[in-house]
Every structure is written in C-alpha cells, then in structure tokens.
Amino acid sequence: MSEPDRFPEPLLRDRTEALLTQAGARPDDARDTTRALLYASRIGVDSHGVRLAPGYAELLRSGGFNASPNYALRHTAPAAAMLDADNGLGHPASFKAMNAAVDLARETGIAAVGVHHSSHFGAAGAYAVAAAEQGMIGLVSTNSDAAVCLFGGAVPFHGTNPIAMAAPVPDTNPWLLDMATSSIPFNRVKLYRSLNQALPAGVAVDANGHPTQDQHAAAFLQPLGGKDYGFKGAALAGVVTILSAVITGATPDPEMVPTDATRNANTPQNVGHFFIAINPDHFVGRTAYETAITHYLALLRNSPATDPAHPVMAPGDREWKEAAERMKHGIPVDPDTMQALGLK
C-alpha cells in the first residue's frame, strides 16, 4: 500500500476552516473545530483528524448541525455548570466547557461542566490537553450513538465512548491518555475503507455479529477487551454514558440518532460531554506537584524494558513524537479527504 500524500499543517488549517465556513459555520466555530481536528491529525489519530471535516460540512449544509448556535452556560454550583450547545458543532462547545471548568477550578480546586444538546466533538484529548496547557489536569468523556455491542451482546448498544486525561508536566508536553472504550473507534473503520486496508483481528463484527476483518463488511465494534475480556470495555463505556448523558440530560447511546450526513434539523442527536478540571494548587501545591510528576515520569521511563532497543513509554510519548515528525514532514491525508479539501 502506497504512503498517503503529506501536507503542511498551515495549509490544512486554511483548507479545513474554509470548507467549514463555506458550509455555513461561523468563523470562530470553524476555527475551534479545525483546532480540534488538527490536534488529532498532528498526533497521528487520523481517524479523528481533518478527514472528519467533509462530513461536518455536509451536516452543516443539511441542517443536521445548527450553523448559528447559542452556546448557553449556566452555573449550577460553585464548582459545577451546564452548557447547552444548541445542536451546534461539538468542538466549540467543548472548548468553551473545558475553559469554564478551568476557570472554576482556579477557585474551587476541582470543577465539572456537563454539556448537552451537542454533537460529535472529535478527539477527546483535544480538550484534556487544553486544560493541561492552562496548568490543570483535564478529564473528558463523551457518549455517542450505538456502534459497540455489549459483552456477549448481538447488537450495538454503547457508542465508542472515549475517555481522555491530560496532566501538565513542567517544560514539556503533557502526560496524555485518549482512548475509546471500544476495540477501536468506528472512524478508524471508515479510514481503513478509504485506504482499502483490512482491519486488525478481533475488533469488529459483521451485521450478523460474526467477527470480521473486512473493513467494508464491519457493521459494529467489539468492546475493549474483545470476546474474552470485553466486559471491562463495556463497563467503562457505561461509566462514560452515566457521566456524559445520564447526569447531563443528553440522549443515551442506544436511543441516539446515528452520526451521518443524512440528518436534518428535525433529528438532533443531543450528544452529551463531561469535562473535569483539577487544580494541583489546591491539593499538594504547584511546586510539589511539578516535582512529583517529573519524578514519577522519570521512574516510569527508566523502568527496565524487555527489549532495550525499545524503552518503555509514558502515555502520550508516542503521540508527541509523531507530532514532532509531522511538523517536519507534513501530515498524511487520505485520498477522499484530499479531494474534499481541494488538495488534488
């Protein structure tokens, strides 16, 4: 399989923002959405990168997304708030919610903001990193439409329901976890279809519930852990649904309208997100926190490896290394997205 063509990040930013604004998004919303998409493309999570922009543009044109939402933040307690995303793009609402949680946590130590009436928000890590860049530990979750079977289940029930956490580290990139509670995100199945690449074993099933590696036959996913340990992934997906939907008033996964480009204004998804910001200043204190996180990561990275040529890595190390490479050599873009962005 040939390598995808690569493009510099500034060009992708300009093309992506232009595509979204031409589809009706306000300039600020297009900018925030592009920021989240380029975060994913930069660190190598291509399934949630700029390849999502054409689908978002179709939903803006069809009315599936509200192109002019009124994002309404309502404080409900000293350390809690709710944000109504008004069926707009999920990315601007998510940056607003995480920034609100950070502002509250400066005073309260820990704060949470729930979001409802939202939509797909891309890679959860984008918003966790946004908290870490402001000196906070960020925790993020979102529910989504049913695409993953339960452990032993024959039909899709939960969404891919990611969990992300980022912790600031002095003078370097944050510690970063960004994971789906499914075997893989379904957007990766779509990416493999575009690349004409078979799926790994044990991640997807066909319409009859049988395991498949055929990217075109894949109908839904298995939970993290697969056929033997999928009860763990299914339970984690439930944690995400409780935080993101049950306590925010969003739609539960199995009742949510599917994410596709055929929806209109009469069928909003009402996706829910949850954002937590934790301020180390109010716990061990900033100086002690920075000393402790630096020491912890040194212990981790110096832990003996089974292969000395491949030392152990902290969560995020692989992604930040990939980001440095892509800043030098460009970001790979699949053929379908190249065409949508006018790159070929």
Automatic annotation (TrEMBL):
**Keyword set includes Amino-acid biosynthesis:** no
- Quote the PANTHER family the UniProt record gives: MALATE DEHYDROGENASE (PTHR11091:SF0), OXIDOREDUCTASE-RELATED (PTHR11091)
Q: Which InterPro entries match?
A: Mal/L-sulf/L-lact_DH-like_ah, Mal/L-sulf/L-lact_DH-like_NADP, Mal/L-sulfo/L-lacto_DH-like_sf, Malate/L-lactate_DH-like
Ordered alphabetically, the record's keywords are: Oxidoreductase
Source organism (scientific name): Acetobacter fallax
Give TM segment ranges: none
Q: Which family does it belong to?
A: Belongs to the LDH2/MDH2 oxidoreductase family.
What Pfam families is this protein classified in? Ldh_2 (PF02615)
Oxidoreductase found in the keyword field: yes
Q: Which domain of life is it from?
A: Bacteria
Q: What is this protein called?
A: Ldh family oxidoreductase
